[in-house]
Amino acid sequence: MKPRPLPAVGPRRILAAAQLVSAIGDGAYYTSSALYFTRIVGLSPTRLGLGLAVAWGIGSLAGVPLGHLADRRGPRGVAVTLAFATAAVVASFLVVRSFLPFLGAACLYATAQSGLAAARQALIGGLVPGEERTGVLARLQSTLNAGLAVGAALGGVALTVGTRTAFLAAFALTALGFLVAGLVLRRLPEVVPEAVPQAVPEAGRAGRDGPGLAVLADRRYAVVTLVNTVLLLRMPLLSLVLPLWIAEREPRLGWLGPALFVLDTVGVTLFQVRTARAVTGLRSAVRAVRRSGAILLASCAVFAVTAAGVPVGATAVLLVAATALLVLGEMKQSAGSWQIGFDLAPADRLGQYQGFFGTGVAVARTAGPLLLTTLLLDGGAPGWLLLGGIFLAAGCAMGPAVRRAERDRPWRTGPVPAGPVPAPAAAGR
Q1: How far is 78 from 190, CA to CA, in rounded Å?
Q2: Among the listed residues 166, 154, 164, 180, the one whose alpha carbon sits nearest the alpha carbon of residue 28
Q3: How far apart, in whole angstroms, are the C-alpha atoms of residue 45 and residue 226?
Q4: Per-residue pLDDT for 425 more than 50?
Q5: How far apart, in whole angstroms, are the C-alpha atoms of residue 107 and residue 112?
Q6: CA-to-CA distance for 156 and 176, rounded, in angstroms?
Q7: What is the rounded CA–CA span in Å between residue 126 and residue 192?
């Protein structure tokens, strides 16, 4: 799919509008779904967790073939269809009464969400020139966080009321959000699949005559995806681990857990675009990811100090400072990974490559809670320091992984340098 010139307003505004309405629905769903399924449907927390883990595991596998479908049939039509499918699946939650129907619906929901994410990325890849993608993705991420905040507030109303009708209204809002998103996405120009496939990396031995799902044979891209997945383990920290950490270490600060989540949402909404401006290619993307690893280490070190029994006021200040560092690391990691995920993917296979790259999110959602609660709640300060060291190692490993992957990309012009490259003596900016 060859990028087309992107008009100043049209497609950007359409993409942002679709992102906003679906994010509002997601926010309402994420806020209210756990209590709906446990209190109203009657599932045990264990069954709920098991069902979601299975669902997201299946969804992560579905992202690649659905992304491949977007490559072959065109990403706009696939994205619209999957947005409508997500709306239908969420609506089906309204009639779920037991575990097996819940499991089936959850698997369909995770599958549609993973495929929709891959198709949206392929849409952006087909409509936006390469040098503009990270900036557009940063704006969409800011829009996403704004929508999640609005949706979470509406879902909070359902939690406060606590009745079946209130929960169903929140789910209806989620379904409506994806229905409207599908209608909005239909207004985008069609992206025609490329007639002649671009050669894929030697590492996969899958060229013009190779397998359709070439990404599954691309080992070097898989290593880059794995490194990014390690960094994505930051995702459950604010939503799950920190509230539990605060409740265990300093119950008087229980109110601070939701406040830190709001701090993250507002921070990304206001500063993601500005942070992403420094990422203009693979070199700057690798640098951003490396710095994110160091910043995440610093954040974990500050969190570790709160295990030392400091006064409650100092604990609150430390938690806010650590969260601010976490938000900064998140924004740098996001901006760098967007550029890397796109630049190392063949232009005619963006859907399947983005579907594969996006499996890191599903892994973080499924494995992250168990790994981090065990490491941090049981391990205390040493656990936080170990996690920080893992983040730092992953950030530093991204450069070598990207350089190895870039060597067998024939559309790339040269390897990523190992370190900073001095500006030419006579060149200006």
Answers
A1: 11
A2: 154
A3: 29
A4: no
A5: 9
A6: 18
A7: 8
Sign of CA dihedral 386, 330, 233, 159: positive
Domain assignment of residue 394, yes or no:
yes
The CATH number that applies at residue 160 is 1.20.1250.20
Q: Does 219 share its domain with 184?
A: no
Give the confidence band of 208 by pLDDT, cuts at 50, 70, 90. Answer: very low
- Tell me how many domains the chain contains: 2
Average pLDDT over every residue of 379-388:
96
The domain containing residue 373 runs over which residues?
204-414
Q: Residue 155 corresponds to which tokens in the numbers above?
A: 């879902």
CA distance 270 to 192: 34
Q: Do both 97 and 223 map to the same domain?
A: no
The C-alpha atoms of residue 301 and residue 207 are separated, in whole angstroms, by 46
- The secondary element (H helix, E strand) that includes residue 329 is helix 312-343
Specify whether the CB–CB gap between 86 and 130 falls below 8 A: no
Asked if residue 320 lies in contact with residue 188, where contact means CB atoms within 8 angstroms, the answer is no
**H or E element at residue 281:** none
Eight-class DSSP state of 233: G
Residues 269-311 pLDDT 10s: 899 999 999 998 999 999 999 999 999 999 999 999 999 888 9
Structural contact between residues 307 and 340, judged by C-beta atoms closer than 8 angstroms: no
* 178 and 211 fall within a common domain: no
Residues with Cβ within 8 Å of residue 376, at least 6 apart in sequence: 241, 245, 383, 384, 387
Q: Which of 299, 291, 298 is nearest to 337 (CA)?
A: 291
Locus of tokens 């063949």: 346
As a whole number of angstroms, the distance between CA 66 and CA 77 comes to 12
Q: Residue 51: phi, psi to the nearest 5?
A: -60, -45
Give CA separation, 363 vs 182, 228, 331, 426, in Å. Answer: 26, 11, 19, 47
Three-state DSSP string of 343-385: HCCCHHHHHHHHHHHCHHHHHHHHHHHHHHHHHHHCCHHHHHH
pLDDT tens by residue, 305-351: 999 888 999 999 999 999 999 999 999 999 999 999 999 988 888 88
Could you tell me the CA-to-CA distances from 166 to 21, 148, 267, 279 in Å, in that order? 20, 18, 30, 43
Closest residue by Cα to residue 220 from 47, 353, 45, 366: 353
